[in-house]
Design a protein that fits this description.
The complex is a heterodimer of chains A (about 450) and B (about 170).
Chain A: H1 12-15, H2 19-28, E1 39-44, E2 52-55, H3 69-80, E3 83-86, H4 101-106, E4 111-119, E5 125-133, E6 138-147, H5 152-168, E7 177-184, E8 187-194, E9 201-206, E10 210-215, E11 221-226, E12 233-238, E13 244-248, E14 254-259, E15 265-270, E16 277-282, E17 289-290, E18 298-303, E19 309-314, E20 321-326, E21 333-334, E22 342-347, E23 353-360, E24 363-370, E25 376-378, E26 386-390, E27 396-403, E28 406-413, E29 418-423, E30 428-434
Parallel strand pairs in A: 2-3, 2-4
Antiparallel strand pairs in A: 1-29, 4-5, 5-6, 7-8, 7-30, 8-9, 10-11, 11-12, 12-13, 14-15, 15-16, 16-17, 18-19, 19-20, 20-21, 22-23, 23-24, 24-25, 26-27, 27-28, 28-29
Chain B: H1 2-21, H2 24-35, H3 51-54, E1 70-72, H4 85-96, E2 103-108, H5 115-135, E3 143-149, H6 160-166, E4 168-172
Helix pairs in contact in B: 4-5
Classes of the chains: A mainly beta (about 450), B alpha+beta (about 170).
Chain lengths: ~450, ~170
């Protein structure tokens, strides 16, 4: 994986493991798409101390191309909080250039990405790039992709992933997807979008509310609560085909689906026995097993990554607090002790962090708790935060909030220093859930 | 009490016959008045009073004519207030009068707080009304308590006036 550029003339299937994703996108494209619906805008509200300075001059040929690859990559890297962009707007380089490292060192860039985009005779695009370690003067490798116009954004996110992994040693999350719900007029839409909020495609639209979307661990299905039957019912929805199945439609309300990490079952909140309690049910449906036995509300289950523990919200102690219980049920342990309203737990995939919403003086704030030490920190300066969900690499959280009186989706680093907003949305936007790494 | 019941049956028959001969629109209008909850504002062409108590007439939504459908709750409360007792009584009598009648109690909250937690709170309100009906002799097999949480506010706005309208449980005959 060093300096050799992979041939761009191979088909995408042969060249990279993007194939299954591409066919998925093709299937999704059949559903209605609102153009220019979602635009992520990076808003750096704090200064990270360990950001790596990186220069990304425009790719050669980008001016005439349908997607500005270098801009997408720059925004991805900036949003991660790990990188700081070094201005390189005047530079004309591509992946074949031998950049003058001394000059880039002088500009205080630690890394440099060069590339090109070329329209091929068959109408597809040839995208190539190369990553340089400016400090060591070392070529860190490159890739080439031959793709249709529809996959150009995906290619840009794959480039971001490559750069992120090479320079941080951790897996990137830029080519993952998020789901969220919008409400415009009386129409509710469940969207599937790229992790930067772009390329949003409608998975379901309804005149009745849709809440609590949750990605299956393999990223192919979404569980959610739909009110289309004049009551809350849990569905599982295969994203590529649009096939839906009823998973929980018991007497009373059915809600808060959470996947077990093996994808075989869901924890859900049912009221079939009176108050809201947690149950476990096969992801194919069937008879549920009761997990909690309290005389209060138990809801919002969330599995730990190892599948052994379920975090949830209960008001058994008088006010809503986060508890945890073994995945098979049993005695619950309280997790949050500060404040009198702590809800919506999300556990990071690495098991180190718990994100949740805490009511503080009438404001609803996103908190991040270190599960080892138990200390929790507010990471936003907004007051209507909702629905946190971790990126699969545990480095970012997506959440809903209100900005200027309107609902918005934000991503934040765990320390709250770097935030990005999903802007340009036509209606109310809410209920984000960050999908897993895509399996290829 | 017995004579009262006879009157109520007679009225209900009259109402059914009226329903047959008159158009759907009339009933819809009557229903629109009822849905605002509480008082019987739709009136009656014959001027006969007392329909509130009998629960014998059937509105367009299938519920009792002239009887409210909405029980309001105080902030952070899940207790059916005494002022709602008359409404609950009248609905209970109506439901009990026909074992085939089914109702859904739809619980709601105001917009503050998390959506899923509010769904559970709305369920608590629906359950409170279901229990009240049950205490009045309504069979649980005729009643389903569900919640809409904060998803279906009755009033728009982020102020107490709207919130107090939204903290409610609706008795739905649809």
């Amino acid at each position: 994986m060093n300096t050799e550029h992979q041939s761009p003339l191979h088909s995408l299937q042969a060249l990279t493991p993007l194939a299954s994703r591409r066919s998925l996108l093709a299937a999704l494209a059949a559903s209605p798409v609102l153009p220019a619906l979602a635009q992520f805008r990076v808003e750096v509200t704090g200064v990270g101390l360990t950001q790596l300075p990186i220069a990304l001059p425009s790719f050669r040929g980008e001016e005439g191309a349908p997607q500005k690859i270098s801009q997408i990559v720059r925004a991805d890297l900036e949003r991660s909080g790990q990188f700081r962009n070094v201005d390189a707007s005047s530079e004309r380089l591509d992946e074949t250039s031998r950049p003058d490292m001394a000059q880039w060192r002088q500009r205080a860039a630690d890394a440099l990405v060069t590339g090109s985009i070329t329209r091929m005779a068959d109408g597809r695009f040839d995208v190539r790039f190369r990553l340089w370690d400016v400090v060591k003067g070392q070529d860190l490798g490159g890739q080439g992709f031959a793709v249709t116009q529809a996959d150009l954004r995906l290619v840009a996110h794959r480039i971001s992933d490559f750069i992120y992994e090479k320079l941080t040693g951790e897996r990137g999350i830029f080519s993952t997807r998020i789901a969220y719900v919008t409400k415009a007029a009386k129409r509710y839409v469940l969207w599937v979008a790229d992790a930067d909020g772009e390329n949003a495609q409608s998975a379901l639209s309804s005149t009745e509310p849709i809440i609590s979307p949750a990605w299956s661990p393999n990223g192919s299905e979404l569980a959610y609560v739909s009110f289309e039957a004049r009551k809350p019912v849990v569905y599982v929805h295969e994203v590529a085909s649009g096939r839906r199945r009823l998973v929980a439609n018991f007497r009373g309300s059915n809600s808060a689906p959470a996947w077990s990490p093996d994808g075989a079952s869901l924890a859900v909140t049912l009221t079939r026995d009176g108050l809201s309690q947690l149950y476990r049910i096969s992801s194919q449906g069937g008879q549920p097993t009761r997990l909690t036995q309290s005389n209060g509300i138990d809801t919002e289950p969330a599995f730990s990554a190892d599948g052994k523990t379920i975090y949830f919200v209960s008001d058994r102690g008088g006010s809503p607090q986060i508890y945890k219980v073994g995945a098979g049920g049993g005695a619950a342990q309280r997790v949050t002790f500060t404040g009198n309203y702590n809800i919506s737990p999300a556990v990071s995939p690495d098991g180190r962090w718990l994100a949740y919403i805490s009511r503080v003086g009438g404001a609803f704030k996103l908190y991040v708790m270190d599960l080892d030490g138990g200390t929790a920190t507010a990471v936003t300066d907004t007051s209507d935060d909702e629905s946190p969900s971790f990126a699969p690499n545990s480095r970012l959280i997506v959440y809903a909030t209100k900005q200027g009186g309107r609902e918005a989706l934000m991503t934040t680093t765990l320390d709250g220093k770097i935030k990005a907003r999903l802007a340009g949305q036509g209606g109310e936007i809410r209920e984000p859930d960050w999908g897993p790494y895509q399996k290829y | 009490m017995i004579t009262f019941k006879r009157v109520s049956i007679a009225l209900s028959v009259a109402a059914l016959m009226a329903g047959c001969s008159s158009g759907v629109k009339l009933d819809e209008n009557a229903n629109a008045g009822n849905n605002n909850g509480g008082a019987n504002t739709s009136g009656s062409a014959s001027g006969v009073a007392g329909v509130d108590l009998t629960g014998g007439q059937i509105a367009a939504d299938g519920g009792p004519k002239g009887v409210g459908r909405v029980v309001y709750f105080d902030f952070d409360s899940f207790v059916v207030k005494s002022e709602a007792q008359g409404l609950v009584d009248a609905n209970a009598r109506f439901i009990k009068a026909d074992a085939a009648r089914k109702v859904t109690i739809e619980g709601h909250t105001d917009e503050r707080g998390g959506r899923e937690y509010n769904l559970a709170l709305g369920q608590k309100r629906a359950e409170a009304v279901r229990r009240s009906l049950n205490l009045l002799g309504v069979s649980d097999s005729q009643v389903e308590a569900v919640s809409f949480g904060e998803e279906k506010p009755a009033a728009a706005g982020s102020n107490e006036a709207a919130y107090s309208q939204n903290r409610r449980a609706e008795i739905s005959y649809r």
